[in-house]
Amino acid sequence: MMAARGFGRVITICLCVAVCVEGYRSRSTSLTDSLNILSKNTGNINNSGIVNSGFNELDFRFGQNEDDKTNDEPEDKANATGPKQAAEAKLTFPGNCQPSRTKLRDGSACSGQTLFEDNFDSLNESVWQIEQYIPNTHPEHPFVSYQHLTTGQTISTAGGILQITPKLQQDLPGFTNDTITSGTLNLNSGCTSTESRCEMTVDGADILPPVASGRITSKTFAFKYGKVYVRAKLPQGDWLYPEILLEPFLKKYGSPHYSSGVIKIATARGNRQLYYGQDDYSNKLLYGGPIMDLDCRETLLSGKLRSDGSAWGDNFHVYSLEWTPEHIVLAVDDEVWGRVKPRRSGLQAKFPSHCKRLPRSRLRAGSRMAPFDDHFYLTLGVAAGGITEFPDDSITSNNKRKPWRDGSRKAMLKFWRGTNSWLSTWKLPRLEIDYVKVVAL
Ligand SMILES: *[C@@H]1O[C@H](CO)[C@@H](O)[C@H](O)[C@H]1NC(C)=O
Ligand SMILES: *[C@@H]1O[C@H](CO)[C@@H](O)[C@H](O)[C@H]1NC(C)=O
Ligand SMILES: *[C@@H]1O[C@H](CO)[C@@H](O)[C@H](O)[C@H]1NC(C)=O
Ligand SMILES: *[C@@H]1O[C@H](CO)[C@@H](O)[C@H](O)[C@H]1NC(C)=O
């Protein structure tokens, strides 16, 4: 089960925006342009949750719109005659609405339209599912449980900021230092997964997850292709990492080992200092990108190391993703730092033959972007430890070695036994999110 290796060496890629813009279709806007458009448009957008796309079939009919009548009358008469033309007419939206390559599970999108936005004035549970389960089948095996707590909250909003704060399980009501190695964790009340992921009893080295954390998902809103903007302050504290993800809605290519793909929009290890050999793996290194295979999870990932001495979690930054049928581009504060393009025979062709867990034949039946050619939803959370993010033998502050080994059955136990070495570094352990928005291509 715990066979994964540590995340390998990341390559620092730092492309300028011009390189990215070059490949865009003429109609598309650059990330800079879209940010400008967004800042102009926010007045029309609801504070919380899904922005009503506002366009249904009736709106698209010729002659229903006043502007249309005055501007396009000759063309209307010439073209909107037969049934075929009428169908096409629905796609030439009146007003400023251009059809978009972004697809929604429900409704349709206009080019450049904000489809989803949350400024987190409150946490709207009609939009976000607050997850509650033990991620014991998650490929990263983080040493956490996700809990929807009513007191001692791991998830809250304050001053328009969403905060996800990891806590020690032993500090929650009903738990002590001893219960982590001898007790039971029952999350059935409010469980958002299967029963086997919501209840566990300690069995030898299989202790209770030492960290209680939070995770929310936008399962009411799933989309295919688009631009995502997340203004966030990443958590700091040894062995923590944020989850700012797109996850597959239907898992069309299967569920185990990332078969249907995950996109990490941005992550950085919480350690103020962390070296793997000569390489800086600390909070100064931003990394992310698409993941399709557990053994070869770094194949498509990119990284960007800060060189000014500060760390990503020191300040808020706007992390963004542009996901199209041709590419995946990652940017921070408008600067592109990661870019993935499929080969002619697809993204899967970029993986060497030893990456055996890829469902290659199923992926070949999809588009070149498969598995990233279906609807995905947003996930925000905080994880700790796990068996994929922190390379074995990496060295953190005060020359301390990572306290567990990824392949070991005692990984979580060793992490917990090391609590005294890392807890004091959890000075800013929470993920803070100012806003999230999704804009149509
Ligand atoms: C904003 O929300 C209100 C109340 O939920 C709704 O009536 C309105 O249509 C929404 N506006 C937009 C632009 O989605
Ligand atoms: C109407 O038809 C003309 C000629 O076929 C074409 O150039 C024009 O783009 C069409 N207009 C619309 C709105 O479809
Ligand atoms: C929560 O979201 C739902 C669905 O978008 C919306 O109808 C409702 O008005 C929102 N509530 C608040 C308090 O914003
Ligand atoms: C649990 O208790 C033991 C013995 O009292 C102590 O050595 C250890 O540091 C404690 N562990 C945690 C995580 O508090």
Strand tally is: 26
Distance between the termini: 39 Å
Portion of residues in helices? 10-25%
Q: Assign the CATH class of the largest domain.
A: Mainly Beta
**CATH topology type of the largest domain:** Jelly Rolls
Please state the second-level CATH architecture of the largest domain.
Answer: Sandwich
Descriptive labels:
seven-stranded antiparallel β-sheet; alpha+beta; binds 2-acetamido-2-deoxy-beta-D-glucopyranose; 26 strands; 441 residues; eight-stranded antiparallel β-sheet; 2 domains; disordered N terminus; Jelly Rolls
Could you please describe the fold and organization of this structure?
- Helices cover 15% and strands 26% of the residues.
- The chain has 441 residues and is α+β, with helices and mostly antiparallel strands.
- Strands 2, 5, 6, 13, 20, 21, 22 and 26 form an eight-stranded antiparallel sheet that branches. Strands 3-11-23-14-15-18-19 form a seven-stranded antiparallel sheet, with no helix packed on it.
- The longest helix has 14 residues, at 66-79.
- It is built from nine helices and 26 strands.
- The protein is globular, with a radius of gyration of 23 Å.
- The chain folds into two domains: 62-96, no CATH class; 121-439, Jelly Rolls (Sandwich), CATH 2.60.120.
- Mean pLDDT is 83; it is low at 1-92.
- The structure holds 2-acetamido-2-deoxy-beta-D-glucopyranose (NAG) (4 copies).
- One 2-acetamido-2-deoxy-beta-D-glucopyranose binds next to loops.
- Residues 75, 78-79, 92 line the site of one 2-acetamido-2-deoxy-beta-D-glucopyranose (NAG).
